[in-house]
Write a structure and sequence with these properties.
5-stranded mixed beta sheet; globular; alpha/beta
Length: 461
C-alpha cells in the first residue's frame, strides 16, 4: 500500500490555561513541545488517516469539523479520517469541562494545524508494507480504583494505605504496534497504543508537557530511525494510572518517570517488531454513530445542588495521584478521598450536578461515533470516550481477528465509560455525577455489543 507520515507543532503560547485538573492553571514554561502526528494508509481502494494530538481531549463537534475539512482537501470521505488525543493533563484547555470553556483562539488554530498535518501525511504517500505486533508490559500502568476494608472504592488511595483490600479491576499491560516499512526494509513510521492516563507530570505542574506519550514518540522515533514519524494512541485507561499504591519503594510522578516510562514502552514496542506480522487483505474502515442516553441524576441530588449556597474557599492542594505515603502526606495536601469532604468539593459538585441535569434536559442523548479500521488479520477500534480497561479486555477476547487494538479519546469525547459493577459501588471518582461521566451505567454494554457485532461481520466479509 501507499503510506505517509507528517508532524506539525501545536505548542500553545505561554499564559494559556492548562486543563486536566479541577482548576485550570496558566502555563509559565515549556517542558516539551506538543505535536500533531498523522499516519496515512492507502491500498488503492481505501485511504485511512489516523491523526494523534498532544492534547487532553477533542470534542465531538471538533472531530466532525476537522474530519470534514481534511477529507475535502484529500478527496476522501470524512469518515475515513480519525482524530485522537493523547490525553496529556499538562496541555491547553481544548474542551468545555468542569465549568471552564475551551480556549477558542487556540482551538481555532489547532483545527487548522491538524487539518494541515492530515493533508501533509496524505501528500507524503509512498510505497510501504504494514506490519503489526502485540505484547504485554508489566509495571507501568495500574488500576487506580481500590476496594477498601469498608467495602467502598477509593480512587488514587495513598501508597501503603492499610485499608486497601484489592484493586477493583485489572491493571493495563497491552502494547500494540503498527509499523510501516519501505521497499528497502527500512522503517518509515509507527503507531504505538498503550493504556495509561497521561498524568505523570505533577498536579501542580505549570509547564506545557506531552507527558510520557511525547517521551515515547521521541525515544522510539530515534531508535527506529524515523524521527517525527512515531505516534501515540491512548488505549483504555479510564481506571488506569501510572501509580502503584501497593509499592512504597518508588514515586511514579515527575519528568524522570515520564522519561523512564516512555523508554520502557518504546523498548517493548521495538522488541515486539522482531516478530511482527504483515497485514493481509484489503483495507477497510467502518464508521457508525449510535445514540447513547445521558445519565439521570437522582432527584435528591439535584434538589441538594439547587439549594446549595456556595461558600468562598481556597482550592485544596491535591495529592499527586496517590503517590505519597499513607500517614506522611504533607499538611498542605489532601488525598482525593479527603477532597470529597471539603467545602471546595461541595461547591464544585453542586455546579457539576446542575450542569449534568441541564444538559440531559436539553438533549437526552449523545452521539457516539465508532470507527473500526481493519485488514483480514487485524482490527483497530477507535472510540470517543475514556474506557475502563475491563471493556477493552472484553472486546479483545470476543474479537475474531488475530490482532485487535482498542484506542480511546478518538472521534470526540463522551467522558468515562465505567463498568456497571463500578456504578453499583459507593465511592471513587469515575462514577460520580460530574461532567466527565455523562452516560448511563449501561453505556458500556451497549457500546461493546455494537463493536463485537461489527467486528464479527467484518471478519466474515
Amino acid at each position: 500500500m501507499k503510506t505517509g507520515f507528517a508532524q506539525t507543532e501545536i505548542t500553545p503560547p505561554l499564559g494559556i490555561y492548562l486543563c486536566g485538573q479541577l482548576e485550570p492553571m496558566k502555563a509559565d514554561g515549556i517542558e516539551s513541545r506538543l505535536f500533531s502526528r498523522a499516519m496515512c494508509l492507502d491500498d488503492g481502494e481505501i485511504c485511512v488517516i489516523i491523526c494523534s494530538n498532544d492534547i487532553l481531549a477533542i470534542s465531538n463537534d471538533f472531530a466532525a469539523e476537522v474530519c470534514s475539512r481534511a477529507g475535502a482537501l484529500c478527496g476522501i470521505p470524512a469518515d475515513n479520517i480519525i482524530v485522537t488525543a493523547t490525553h496529556t493533563h499538562s496541555g491547553p484547555n481544548t474542551v468545555d469541562i468542569f465549568g471552564k470553556d475551551a480556549n477558542s483562539d487556540y482551538v481555532s488554530q489547532l483545527k487548522s494545524n491538524i487539518v494541515d498535518t492530515i493533508k501533509t501525511a496524505f501528500e507524503n504517500r509512498s510505497n510501504g508494507m504494514l506490519k503489526f505486533a502485540s505484547g504485554e508490559l508489566d509495571g507501568f500502568a495500574f488500576n487506580r480504583r481500590f476496594i477498601m476494608s469498608d467495602g467502598t472504592i477509593q480512587t488514587h488511595p495513598l501508597k501503603g494505605d492499610p485499608h486497601m483490600v484489592q484493586p477493583e479491576g485489572p491493571d493495563s499491560k497491552q502494547v500494540d504496534v503498527l509499523c510501516v516499512y519501505d521497499d528497502a526494509g527500512n522503517i518509515k513510521g509507527a503507531s504505538v497504543t498503550f493504556g495509561c492516563h497521561a498524568t505523570v507530570m505533577e498536579r501542580d505542574n505549570t509547564k506545557i508537557s506531552s507527558d510520557y506519550a511525547g517521551k515515547l514518540c521521541e525515544y522510539l522515533g530515534k531508535k527506529l530511525g524515523c524521527d517525527n514519524a512515531v505516534q501515540f494512541l491512548a488505549g483504555a485507561a479510564g481506571n488506569i494510572c501510572q501509580v502503584n499504591p501497593r509499592d512504597i519503594s518508588q514515586t511514579e510522578v515527575g519528568l524522570s518517570w515520564c522519561e523512564r516510562m516512555g523508554k520502557a514502552i518504546g523498548d517493548k514496542a521495538n522488541g515486539l517488531l522482531q516478530n511482527a506480522k504483515a497485514g493481509q487483505g484489503t483495507l477497510k474502515i467502518i464508521s457508525k454513530t449510535i445514540k447513547l442516553k445521558r445519565r439521570e441524576i437522582p432527584a435528591e441530588l439535584v434538589q441538594w445542588a439547587n439549594n446549595h449556597s456556595e461558600i468562598p474557599t481556597e482550592v485544596p492542594q491535591l495529592s499527586d495521584y496517590g503517590s505519597e505515603l499513607y500517614g506522611k502526606l504533607p499538611d498542605q495536601k489532601v488525598s482525593l478521598d479527603e477532597l470529597f469532604k471539603t467545602t471546595f468539593w461541595a461547591n464544585f459538585y453542586a455546579n457539576e450536578i446542575k450542569t449534568l441535569d441541564r444538559m440531559r434536559v436539553e438533549n437526552a442523548e449523545m452521539p457516539f461515533t465508532i470507527k473500526i479500521v481493519s485488514q483480514a488479520n487485524w482490527a483497530m477500534v477507535f472510540l470517543p470516550c475514556e474506557l475502563f480497561v475491563e471493556w477493552s479486555n472484553f472486546i479483545r477476547k470476543e474479537s475474531p481477528f488475530e490482532f485487535t487494538s482498542v484506542v480511546t479519546l478518538a472521534n470526540g469525547w463522551n467522558g468515562y465509560i465505567p463498568t456497571k459493577r463500578s456504578f453499583e459501588r459507593s465511592g471513587g471518582y469515575e462514577t460520580k455525577e460530574v461532567t466527565s461521566t455523562m452516560l448511563r451505567p449501561e453505556a458500556g454494554d451497549v457500546v461493546t455489543k455494537e463493536i463485537i457485532g461489527i467486528l464479527k461481520a467484518e471478519h466474515k466479509s
